[in-house]
């Protein structure tokens, strides 16, 4: 409730008291102004809009918020494994030991600046996006009285220029030569299939025999990064890779390439490094495949049907043509 009293100085002091909140007071020269402010603040109190007292915010640590977000929100996402890695790292940071009363935008900026010295800007952008969503979720869904999301005032990190890395014939030969020392029989078939289809690593590793129609020469991809299933045509080269797999192991496994994501990643990195291609990412093979589709004359909608892009602007980022491929068209 609001209490108004006249001070010896002649001013009118208003004090607002509500259980669970620190008292709020303010002084006015006119009694009418004091009454108006008192009515406004009581309305704010009824709406639960009074400032949260620090003693309440002190009860919550940033790391507790992140742990709950990891265990209740992230675990439901397809990107859980990668997001869990990010959250586990955030939980170990010094700012995570601060309470919600102590955490500030400046503390987050200190982490951002430190992180930018270690990893690329895109990685830091993802870290901060996850952190921001964790604070938003705590306020909107868990009723944790956060005064203001400390990431709201942080300027967005400018995105990096998209990679235009393509795989040359010499580099492909180097990968094949390095294969002699590779014990994993699935690595090269996966590489070949990626170049033939433009599929993401996760999509290839989750591919099952039941999703392949050899008569129609198509493959159904039920689980994708953007959440939209798609069916793609298979070239004779892609089909040849699949037929080789049937000869090697038959259809003993549900999945065409029965490897874990981590197992394949390690095998890929060893093969790539032996070939001397340290700057080559597996995702660059998707760039290569999509660029080849365009060079073969496929239209943008046709390429999008295969690649799964729903935003043509994103598709253009993946498409990097070789100038020499346009010579014949120009005449």
Descriptive account of the structure:
It is a single chain. With 331 residues, this protein is mainly α. The protein folds into three domains: 2-51, GCC-box Binding Domain (2-Layer Sandwich), CATH 3.30.730; 62-140; 169-330, hpI Integrase, Chain A. It contains 15 helices and six strands. It has helices at residues 31-46, 54-57, 62-72, 80-91, 105-116, 121-140, 169-178, 187-197, 201-205, 236-249, 261-274, 284-295, 300-307, 312-318, 327-330, and strands at 2-6, 12-16, 24-28, 212-213, 218-221, 230-233. The strands form two sheets. The protein has a three-stranded antiparallel β-sheet, with helices on one face. Strand 4 and strand 5 (218-221) form a beta hairpin. Helix 3 (62-72) packs antiparallel against helix 4 (80-91) and helix 8 (187-197) runs antiparallel to helix 10. It starts with a strand and ends with a helix. The relative contact order is 0.08.
- The largest sheet has its strands arranged as 1-2-3
Note the gap between the termini: 85 Å
Strand content: 5-15%
- Given as residue ranges, the uncertain stretches (5+ residues, pLDDT < 50) are none
Helix content: 40-55%
User: Averaged pLDDT, please?
Assistant: 85
Number of helices: 15
What order do the SSEs take from the amino end to the carboxyl end, as H and E? EEEHHHHHHHHHEEEHHHHHH
> C-alpha Rg, in Å?
29 Å
Number of domains: 3
CATH topology of the largest domain: hpI Integrase, Chain A
In oligomeric terms, what are we looking at? single chain
Shape: elongated
**CATH architecture descriptor of the largest domain:** Orthogonal Bundle
CATH class of the largest domain: Mainly Alpha
The tally of beta strands, per DSSP, is 6
Specify the structural class.
mainly alpha
Give the CATH H-level superfamily of the largest domain: Intergrase catalytic core
């Amino acid at each position: 409730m609001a209490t108004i009293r006249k001070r010896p100085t002649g001013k009118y002091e208003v004090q607002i008291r509500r259980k669970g909140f620190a008292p709020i007071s303010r002084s006015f020269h006119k009694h009418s102004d004091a009454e108006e402010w008192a009515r406004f603040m009581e309305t704010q109190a009824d709406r639960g809009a009074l400032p949260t007292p620090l003693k309440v915010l002190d009860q919550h640590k940033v790391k507790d918020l992140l742990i709950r977000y990891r265990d209740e929100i992230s675990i439901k996402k397809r990107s859980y494994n990668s997001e869990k890695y990010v959250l586990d790292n955030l939980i170990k940071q010094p700012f995570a030991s601060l309470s919600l009363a102590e955490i500030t935008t400046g503390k987050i900026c200190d982490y951002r600046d430190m992180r930018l010295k270690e990893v690329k800007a895109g990685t830091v952008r993802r870290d901060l996006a996850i952190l921001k969503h964790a604070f938003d979720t705590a306020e909107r869904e868990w009723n944790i009285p956060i005064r203001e999301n400390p990431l709201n005032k942080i300027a967005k990190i400018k995105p990096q220029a998209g990679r235009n890395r393509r795989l040359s014939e010499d580099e492909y030969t180097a990968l094949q030569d390095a294969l002699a020392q590779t014990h994993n029989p699935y690595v090269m078939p996966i590489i070949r299939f990626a170049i033939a289809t433009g599929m993401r690593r996760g999509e290839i590793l989750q591919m099952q025999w039941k999703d392949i129609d050899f008569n129609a020469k198509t493959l159904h991809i039920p689980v994708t990064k953007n959440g939209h299933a798609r069916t793609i045509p298979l070239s004779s080269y892609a089909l040849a890779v699949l037929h080789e797999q049937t000869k090697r192991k038959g259809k003993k496994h549900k999945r065409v390439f029965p490897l874990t994501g981590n197992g394949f990643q390690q095998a890929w990195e060893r093969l790539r490094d032996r070939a001397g291609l340290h700057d080559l990412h597996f995702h660059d093979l998707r760039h290569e495949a999509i660029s080849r589709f365009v060079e073969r004359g496929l239209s943008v909608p046709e390429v999008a049907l295969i690649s799964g892009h729903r935003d043509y602007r994103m598709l253009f980022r993946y498409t990097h043509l070789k100038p020499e491929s346009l010579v014949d068209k120009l005449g």
